[in-house]
Amino acid sequence: QVQLVESGGGLVQAGGSLRLSCAASGTTFGRYALGWFRQAPGREREFVAAISWSGTTTSYDNFAKGRFTISRGDAKNTAYLQMNSLKPEDAAVYYCATDDNVGVLATTPPIAWGQGTQVTVSS
User: Fold this and answer.
1) pLDDT (0 to 100) of residue 70
2) pLDDT by residue (tens digit) across 4-51?
3) Which tens digit of pLDDT belongs to each residue from 49-77?
4) Going by DSSP bridges, is the β-strand pair 117-122/10-13 parallel, antiparallel, or unpaired?
5) Radius of gyration over every alpha carbon of the chain, rounded to an integer in angstroms
6) What is the distance between the alpha carbons of residues 111 and 73, in angstroms, rounded to a whole number?
């Protein structure tokens, strides 16, 4: 079983930055990709970004390109989402997720979710 714990959410003004962290653990956590999804009130959960176990492959949704950067810690069981130039429409609960690889993570329901961290952007 895999456990994912997010941190780093909070309140930020439009144009500001936040860095989210995800820590993965569990006896079955192996060479998995890690990624981020988000869900705003009244909207479906959507893919944000994903990174391979090695860190060499990444994928971003269009709205995240150029503003968000996903990275992986040296220990491989952590992932980060650096979010810059935040907009009010980026406000959502951000979830960490994991699956076999970036392609699967970006297109199919992940094998595990974290509980989410709230990001609020004031205008």
Assistant:
1) 98
2) 999 999 999 999 999 999 999 987 777 899 999 999 999 999 999 999
3) 999 999 999 999 999 999 999 999 988 89
4) parallel
5) 13
6) 21
**Residue labelled with tokens 């959507």:** 46
What share of the chain in percent tops pLDDT 90? 89
Rounded-to-10 torsion of CA 118, 63, 50, 20: -30
Mention every residue, 6+ apart, whose C-beta is less than 8 A from residue 40: 89, 91, 92, 93
What local confidence, expressed as pLDDT, does residue 53 receive?
A: 93
Cβ neighbours around 74 below 10 Å, total: 7
Contact in structure between 73 and 55 (CB atoms under 8 Å): no
CA nearest neighbour of 92 among 47, 50, 58? 47
The CA-atom distances, in angstroms, between 95 and each of 40, 102, 123 are: 11, 16, 23
